[in-house]
Specification:
Blueprint lengths: L12 H13 L18 E5 L2 E4 L4 E4 L2 H4 L8 H14 L9 H13 L5 E5 L2 H16 L3 E5 L38 H4 L2 E4 L4 H10 L4 E6 L2 E2 L3 E2 L2 H13 L3 E5 L11 H6 L5 E5 L9 E5 L1 H4 L34 H15 L3 H22 L5 E5 L2 E5 L16 H13 L2 E2 L6 E2 L6 H20 L3
Parallel strand pairs: 3-15, 5-6, 5-7, 7-10, 10-11
Antiparallel strand pairs: 1-2, 2-3, 4-12, 8-9, 11-12, 13-14, 14-16
Helix pairs in contact: 3-11, 4-11, 7-8, 12-14, 13-14
InterPro entries: Aminotrans_3, Aminotrans_3_PPA_site, PyrdxlP-dep_Trfase, PyrdxlP-dep_Trfase_major, PyrdxlP-dep_Trfase_small
Organism: Paracerasibacillus soli
GO molecular function, one term: transaminase activity
Length: 459
């Protein structure tokens, strides 16, 4: 963010003081790098429905919604009740053993998602994508993976490649160069990841054919960043070529799961991946991930008496053809109760239709407003998620974003914080079933005030 952008003097005193303290005890003052933005992140105190209140007492209409996880809004009573009932009825937070909710939610996901026959739970979307890649490698016997330029699949090295590369270093748009996004990479790791051009089917086919003998999987966000949608012809062609070349197709639906359709983007496109990673909305505001896929692939991680990596003694036999997957909190009963309550709310008659209608209404109103002020802006997204693109040109991939007016977007977003609209500057908007028409009207009004303020200051 440009250094001249800051909060109004004295408006965020408590947040600033807490951030200064946090930097003494927490690296960078934040517990996740995505929580940081300049001049400093805002510390929150409480929330309810579509609203957040910070430690300095300012109220916001929240469109970040924990990066899209809170599709029911903050503290929805049905989700809260489900958690309380789970705790009251079982008398514990977690069993550490199998329990019935694991089966209940697994059945639900199989019913909703065309590409899911069986399910394993994790504690984050990152863990789900990591397990997907491990299963794909075991299934194919190949090592290299393909991922698309600009796509994010979690913070581990094999996919933290070319997520946000400088265009001068990124190579040809037809055959992007694999670039590490952060330090701590080993040189050989970059060689294990092939970077592909999103929404360019012919170039993608050429690269997949060239490296087919090495590629275990291709992983993709069917809607990049939650707002740049794959073109129908592209996603269908990708499915066809991966099947032809014996490459596992992984849909990372952590962002799109339940937000673009109850059955994810795969239900919208009518394309069935081999493996599907889920997270965010699935946990109802609690940490969760899940991997689902074909029975043939998912059974690769099924345990047997001979496959316990922790067994010992003379009778111990550790099979090498089982993909070990475990986690103390996998399938946490409190989390699954919250997730099931969330899905139940979304399945109620008309709920998703109303949510999408409200989202489209906000998008249309914002586009009309910016046109009035002769500012090139259009919204880009699917379902209940979208982003504001400050450009006349359509956005088909990561490189197209470099032609947008990012500086103006940052100035607008900072001013929106002053006007009580919470979105991490530059991030996508996520709607919830708790957002009201009054929220939408206030949001449009806040945008108009932000536009006037920025234009008056020479923005």
């Amino acid at each position: 963010m440009p250094s001249h952008i800051s909060y109004a003097q004295g408006s965020k005193v408590q947040s600033f003081q807490l951030f200064q303290q946090a930097k003494e005890w927490i690296p960078g003052g934040v517990t996740a790098n995505i929580k940081h933005f300049s001049p400093h992140p805002i510390f929150m105190k409480c929330a309810k429905g579509s609203k957040l209140i910070d430690v300095d007492g300012q109220e916001y209409i929240d469109y970040l919604l924990c990066y899209g996880a809170l599709i029911t809004g903050h503290g929805h009573q049905a989700v809260t009740n489900a958690v309380k009932e789970q705790l009251d009825q079982t008398g514990t937070t977690v069993f550490g053993t199998p329990h019935e909710l694991e089966l209940t939610l697994a059945k639900k996901l199989v019913d909703l998602y065309p590409g899911i026959d069986m399910v394993r739970y994790t504690n984050s979307g990152l863990e789900a994508t990591l397990l997907a890649i491990r299963l794909a490698r075991a299934y194919t016997g190949k090592d290299k993976i393909g991922k698309f330029e600009g796509h994010y699949h979690g913070g581990f090295n094999h996919v933290l490649v070319s997520v946000n590369p400088e265009l001068d270093d990124a190579g040809s748009k037809y055959e992007p160069i694999a670039l590490q996004n952060r330090v701590a990479f080993q040189k050989h790791e970059l060689k294990q990841t092939l970077v592909l051009p999103f929404n360019d089917l012919q170039s993608t086919k050429n690269l997949l054919r060239k490296y087919a003998s090495e590629l275990a999987a291709v992983i993709i966000e069917p809607v990049q960043g939650g707002f740049i949608r794959a073109e129908q012809e592209f996603i269908e062609g990708l499915r066809e070529i991966t099947e032809e070349l014996n490459i596992v197709l992984i849909f990372d639906e952590v962002k799109t799961g339940f937000r673009v359709h109850l059955g994810g983007a795969q239900s919208v496109y009518g394309v069935k991946p081999d493996l599907t990673a889920l997270g965010k909305v699935l946990g109802g505001g609690y940490p969760i991930g899940a991997l689902g896929g074909s029975k043939e692939m998912m059974m690769l991680c099924a345990p047997t008496d001979e496959s316990d990596v922790f067994s010992f003694g003379q009778s111990s036999r550790k099979k090498t053809d089982v993909v070990f997957h475990s986690g103390t909190y996998n399938g946490h009963p409190v989390v699954l109760a919250a997730g099931l309550a969330t899905i139940s709310l979304l399945e109620e008659n008309g709920v998703m239709e109303v949510l999408f209608a409200k989202t489209n209404h906000l998008r249309t109103a914002l586009e009309k407003l910016y046109t009035t002020y002769q500012i090139p802006m259009h919204t880009c997204g699917m379902g209940s998620i979208f982003n504001l693109i400050f450009s006349k040109n359509p956005i088909r991939n990561y490189r197209d974003l470099w032609g947008t007016n990012h500086d103006l977007r940052m100035k607008i977003d900072m001013e929106l914080l002053h006007q009580g609209i919470y979105i991490k500057p530059g991030n996508r908007y996520s709607m919830s079933i708790s957002h009201t028409q009054q929220d939408i009207d206030k949001t449009v009004e806040a945008h108009e005030k932000a536009i006037k303020k920025v234009l008056s200051s020479g923005g």
